């Protein structure tokens, strides 16, 4: 029993890394199709990663040890987060450490190091990117925490496995606080993973880039790590949304291989739906000006706050 | 239908019917006469209600608390309609009003009377609220009737602030219903004053407190308590003078009456918040604020508008103090203020016509150019400032003495406020009455002075002698108020 | 249908009303504001209709219909036309920025929940929840009236305030029909008055920006004329006093 769940846990750890570039490729493809282009192939991100790994990593002379270490740190932090969020199976060995606050902390650590790395080389683009990123984070984290509060007040715990268990149970009912938290989390996810309308992942114009500006100096394998980390971050947010707000179909321990396969399939389907919705949203909205991003995030914060407040008028509290 | 019920119906139906007819009548002369006639008949019916009362119903009631107010309201309505008949002649001459507007004006006047009467006789809390709302809306329309910039601003401000106040009052009404409903069950019983007052000990005190806060804020706005008074000076200054008289003399009283009813409900429940201290504080605050503001006024109507705020502050303070003597003083003050203030506004209206301006510094030497007006204005100011032997002196004296006896510390701001107001009003009035007269433009026929001098006469008499039945009534109601 | 699900749906609808009130707060464009107000009325009528269903009070369906027809359709359409015909300037400026306004709004929601819930311990939970949200909507409507300079948006703020009152009235179980009459009545009269005023203000000022009205106060603020004149109050504008006009 323990062996099977450890194996399944290992599968999850690997699965997320494998799926992340595919997710990015899928989102790009759908968006291109919506815009009536053919779009790059679904496997293009893999090819990009392989290409980058084979290239030399050119490092500026003014860079310190942090610059070299940061990509690995960022990647590992986000990988850990992605590995513990319940995706296709609940109650896996690592799930005890899958606490919402831990996930927020891991993502925050990754962001911290990335911002430092952006500042490290001393170019102005790096500085712009880092400052904008941190500005976004300053609002996105409180919003995220509000969502966490709402959800954990309802579920009675911040542990993701308890949350999943509560949300798939019958007690939940129709709750507006959850709806508001869902919107808040989606907005935060868009902001944090650097998608339109907050940040354009494909731009390199000074006026518009946030994430890209921070990583402008990276090349070769470092850049590959960072790109992979970026796609993993999007995966983390989508998995979080799926786990908290749409937890059905997850395999429970001890029901055999079949249930794991079904769980896996459902998970991939959820990712597909999420990615599709993201692509549709990106194709229909223009990117916001940078100084409007705080308003966008303030909205997310308000939604989260309102969701928490409304809980106090509900029947259980 | 019993005679009482018929009379009650009359006091409501006559103004409504008159409003309808006046809206259709095109001749303004006939309209002003019909206005007077309708007011006279309403007054007659109301006076008869003193003797003959209908059975209390769930919607309408005539009891000790409201009967004198009904008579007072219809009486002041009558004298104001007489004043208005003379006033509009001059306004037409200078072109500030047109015959078409006058039709609207007369119809709204009677509608206002109807709404105020309904508010006074309503037994159902929501019905009273509706009546106060209609009264507010009619006065808003009338304040804006001149269509000048200033009038529109005043009317808009009045509308916004009044509507917000009304909304808060409705919320308070709903909460009171909820408090009553949990004890009495659903239905009309939970909304009737008589039932609410008698059963209030059974209500949830927390809900009553919540309700009272909103009701105080809501109806307090309509009473003009500081800091909710912002609409009052502008509305008085920019509207036609008869409306200023009715606003000050009657509408403020009606709103205060509503507050009093709710205070009675609160008083019946021993666990609920004591409304007294809050009301006393707000009353004192209004008094001091208004007394200070009186010194810097440049417009005569604004001056007396602040005086209304001051007096409402005194009355609310009196009812906040509670106890039979303070309540008696408050009730007397309400009556005296109603009569005196409307008389003052009549005089002010004539003064403004005579001198062609409302600015105080342009009004000088009234006793020389228009002696009756000048001395009348002085007399009115003496009355409103509380000089003996006018009626207001009596009520203020009672209030001060009972405050000194019970809460000596509070007597200090009270007396201070009274003295400040006294000084300001007298200074301004003397300035207007004496001094070198600048040429007045209009001659005002002396006949038109009848309404204000009738009021002054009543106030003077009341200062010296009040008939025993009236005293007994005041005392009885003072006890009921708790 | 279980009691819990009934409560949850009522909670959902009332909470959405609060949410839409928030959205009304930050609108900067007139047409968006009017459309959102229509949405506000629709959510209100849904909420009232749901209450009618749970409480078994058929007269509340009438209230829901009145709210829907009148405030959901009639008033937005008419205001749309008024804005078009009078060429009212279509951007709305706020007194304070959007951020502080939203924060204050949040504070008001927290305040209303904090005031109503402890006070209503003995009443049934549905009524409590309605009352708390109704007060929140009322206070948000008030905030909207206070934080805008534009007459149309002040009017919208007032009407959203009235919507909150309707919600409160339906939450109070069994309130007799008089309330429906009174609320509908006030809506009707308010609209007439609003209409008249909007036309008159536009007629007089060529704008519905209320700051233009401020200039014509009877007694001007001291600091408008600059420093040093702190003991003299300026005279009123004379052209509106007693002359031909």
Word description of this protein:
- The complex is a heterotrimer of chains A (317), B (482) and C (245).
- Chain A has 317 residues and is an all-alpha fold.
- Chain A has one domain.
- In chain A, 70% of the residues lie in helices and 0% in strands.
- Chain A has helices at 2-34, 44-54, 65-84, 100-120, 124-155, 160-168, 176-192, 211-214, 220-245, 256-284, 293-311.
- The mean pLDDT of chain A is 89.
- Chain B has 482 residues and is an all-alpha fold.
- Chain B has a domain at 274-482.
- Helix content of chain B is 79%, strand content 0%.
- Chain B has 19 helices and no strands.
- In chain B, helix 10 (241-267) runs parallel beside helix 12 (300-321).
- The model of chain B has no long low-confidence stretch (mean pLDDT 86).
- Chain C has 245 residues and is an all-alpha fold.
- Chain C has two domains: 3-214, no CATH class; 217-245, no CATH class.
- Chain C is built from eight helices and no strands.
- Chain C is globular.
- The termini of chain C are far apart.
- Chains B and C meet through helix 5, helix 6, helix 8 and helix 9 of B and helix 4, helix 5, helix 6, helix 7 and helix 8 of C.
Helix/strand layout:
The complex is a heterotrimer of chains A (about 325), B (about 475) and C (about 240).
Chain A: H1 2-34, H2 44-54, H3 65-84, H4 100-120, H5 124-155, H6 160-168, H7 176-192, H8 211-214, H9 220-245, H10 256-284, H11 293-311
Chain B: H1 3-24, H2 28-51, H3 64-94, H4 99-121, H5 125-143, H6 149-184, H7 193-199, H8 205-223, H9 231-238, H10 241-267, H11 275-293, H12 300-321, H13 324-355, H14 366-369, H15 371-385, H16 391-406, H17 408-433, H18 450-464, H19 468-481
Helix pairs in contact in B: 1-2, 1-4, 2-3, 2-4, 3-4, 3-10, 3-13, 4-5, 4-10, 5-6, 5-10, 6-8, 6-9, 7-10, 8-10, 9-10, 9-12, 10-12, 10-13, 11-12, 11-17, 12-13, 12-17, 13-15, 13-16, 13-18, 13-19, 15-17, 15-18, 16-17, 16-18
Chain C: H1 3-26, H2 30-55, H3 59-85, H4 98-119, H5 125-146, H6 151-171, H7 178-205, H8 210-214
Instruction: Note the quaternary state here.
Output: heterotrimer
Radius of gyration of chain A: 19 Å
Level of helix content of chain C? Answer: over 70%
The count of strands of chain C amounts to 0
In whole angstroms, how far apart are the ends of chain C?
Answer: 66 Å
Mean pLDDT of chain A: 89
Number of domains of chain A: 1
Order of helices and strands of chain A: HHHHHHHHHHH
């Amino acid at each position: 029993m323990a062996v099977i769940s450890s194996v399944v846990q290992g599968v999850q750890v690997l699965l997320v890394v494998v799926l992340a570039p595919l997710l990015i490729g899928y989102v790009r493809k759908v968006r291109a199709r919506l815009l009536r282009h053919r779009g790059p192939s679904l496997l293009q991100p893999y090819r990009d990663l392989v290409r980058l790994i084979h290239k030399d990593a050119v490092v500026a002379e003014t860079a310190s040890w942090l610059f070299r270490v940061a990509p690995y740190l960022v990647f590992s932090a986000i990988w850990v987060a992605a590995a513990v969020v319940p995706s296709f199976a609940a109650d896996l060995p690592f799930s005890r450490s899958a606490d919402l606050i831990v996930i927020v902390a891991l993502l925050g650590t990754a962001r911290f190091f990335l911002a430092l790395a952006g500042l490290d080389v001393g170019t102005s683009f790096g500085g712009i990117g880092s400052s904008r990123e941190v500005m976004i984070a300053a609002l996105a984290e409180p919003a995220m925490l509000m969502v966490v509060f709402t959800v954990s007040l309802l579920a009675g715990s911040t542990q993701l496995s308890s949350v999943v268990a509560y949300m798939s149970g019958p007690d939940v009912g129709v709750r507006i606080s959850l709806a508001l938290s869902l919107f808040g989390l989606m907005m935060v996810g868009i902001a944090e993973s650097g998608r339109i309308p907050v940040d354009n992942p494909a731009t390199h114009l000074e006026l518009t880039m946030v994430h890209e500006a921070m990583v402008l100096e990276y090349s070769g394998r470092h850049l590959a790590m960072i790109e992979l980390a970026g796609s993993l971050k999007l995966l983390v947010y989508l998995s979080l949304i799926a786990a908290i707000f749409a937890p059905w179909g997850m395999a429970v321990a001890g029901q055999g291989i079949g249930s794991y396969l079904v769980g896996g399939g459902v998970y991939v389907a959820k990712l597909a739906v999420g990615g599709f919705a993201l692509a549709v949203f990106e194709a229909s909205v223009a990117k916001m000006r940078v100084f409007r991003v705080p308003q966008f995030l303030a909205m997310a914060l308000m939604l989260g706050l309102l969701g928490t407040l409304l809980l106090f008028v509900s029947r259980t509290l | 239908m019993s005679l009482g019920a018929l009379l009650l119906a009359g006091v409501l139906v006559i103004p409504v019917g008159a409003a309808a007819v006046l809206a259709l009548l095109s001749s303004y002369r006939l309209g002003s006469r019909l206005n007077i006639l309708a007011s006279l008949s309403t007054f007659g019916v109301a006076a008869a209600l003193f003797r003959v009362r209908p059975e209390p119903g769930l919607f309408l009631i005539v009891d000790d608390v409201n009967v004198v107010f009904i008579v007072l309201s219809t009486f002041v309505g009558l004298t104001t309609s007489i004043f208005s008949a003379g006033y509009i002649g001059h306004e037409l001459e200078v072109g500030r009003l047109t015959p078409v507007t006058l039709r609207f004006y007369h119809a709204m006047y009677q509608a206002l009377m109807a709404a105020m009467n309904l508010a006074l006789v309503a037994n159902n809390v929501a019905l009273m609220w509706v009546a106060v709302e209609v009264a507010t809306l009619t006065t808003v329309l009338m304040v804006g009737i001149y269509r000048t910039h200033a009038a529109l601003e005043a009317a808009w401000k009045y509308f916004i602030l009044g509507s917000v106040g009304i909304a808060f009052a409705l919320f308070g009404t709903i909460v009171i219903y909820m408090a009553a409903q949990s004890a009495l069950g659903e239905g009309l019983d939970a909304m009737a004053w008589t039932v609410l007052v008698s059963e209030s000990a059974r209500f949830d005190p927390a809900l009553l407190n919540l309700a009272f806060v909103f009701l105080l804020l809501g109806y307090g706005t309509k009473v003009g308590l500081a800091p909710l008074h912002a609409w009052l000076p502008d509305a008085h200054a920019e509207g036609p003078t008869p409306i200023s008289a009715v606003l000050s003399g009657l509408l403020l009283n009606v709103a205060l009456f509503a507050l009093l009813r709710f205070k009675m409900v609160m008083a019946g429940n021993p666990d609920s918040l004591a409304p007294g201290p809050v009301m006393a504080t707000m009353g004192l605050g209004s008094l001091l604020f208004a007394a200070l503001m009186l010194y810097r006024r440049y417009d005569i109507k604004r001056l007396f508008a602040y005086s209304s705020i001051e007096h409402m502050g005194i009355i609310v303070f009196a009812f906040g103090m509670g106890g039979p003597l303070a309540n008696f003083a408050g009730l007397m003050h309400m009556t005296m203020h109603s009569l005196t203030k409307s008389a003052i506004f009549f005089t002010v209206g004539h003064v403004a016509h005579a001198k062609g301006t409302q600015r105080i510094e342009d009004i000088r030497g009234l006793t020389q150019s228009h002696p009756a007006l000048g001395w009348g204005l002085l007399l009115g100011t003496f009355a409103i400032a509380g000089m003996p032997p006018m009626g207001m002196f009596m009520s203020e004296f009672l209030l001060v003495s009972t405050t000194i006896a019970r809460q000596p510390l509070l007597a200090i701001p009270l007396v201070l406020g009274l003295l400040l107001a006294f000084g300001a009003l007298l200074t301004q009035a003397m300035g207007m009455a004496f001094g070198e007269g600048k040429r007045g433009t209009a001659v005002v026929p002396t006949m038109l002075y009848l309404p204000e001098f009738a009021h002054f006469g009543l106030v003077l008499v009341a200062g010296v002698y009040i008939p025993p039945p009236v005293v007994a009534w005041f005392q009885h109601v003072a006890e009921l108020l708790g | 249908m279980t009691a819990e699900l009934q409560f949850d749906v009522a909670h959902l609808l009332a909470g959405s009303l609060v949410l839409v009130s928030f959205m009304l707060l930050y609108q900067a464009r007139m047409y968006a504001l009017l459309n959102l107000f229509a949405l506000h009325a629709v959510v209100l009528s849904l909420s009232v209709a749901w209450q009618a269903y749970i409480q078994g009070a058929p007269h509340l369906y009438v209230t829901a219909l009145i709210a829907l027809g009148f405030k959901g359709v009639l008033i937005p359409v008419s205001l749309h036309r008024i804005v078009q015909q009078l060429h009212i300037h279509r951007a709305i400026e706020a007194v304070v920025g959007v951020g502080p306004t939203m924060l204050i709004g949040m504070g008001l929601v927290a305040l209303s929940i904090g005031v109503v819930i402890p006070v209503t311990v003995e009443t049934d939970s549905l009524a409590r929840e309605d009352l708390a949200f109704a007060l929140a909507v009322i206070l948000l409507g008030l905030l909207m009236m206070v934080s805008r300079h534009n007459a149309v948006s002040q009017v919208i703020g007032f009407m959203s305030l009235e919507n909150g009152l309707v919600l409160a009235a339906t939450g109070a179980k069994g309130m007799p029909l008089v309330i429906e009459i009174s609320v509908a009545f006030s809506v009707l009269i308010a609209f007439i008055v609003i209409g008249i005023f909007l036309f008159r203000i536009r007629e007089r000022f060529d704008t519905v920006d209320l700051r233009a009205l401020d200039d014509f106060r009877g007694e001007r603020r001291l600091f408008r004329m600059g420093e040093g004149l702190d003991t003299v109050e300026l005279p009123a504008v004379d052209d509106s006093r007693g002359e031909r006009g």
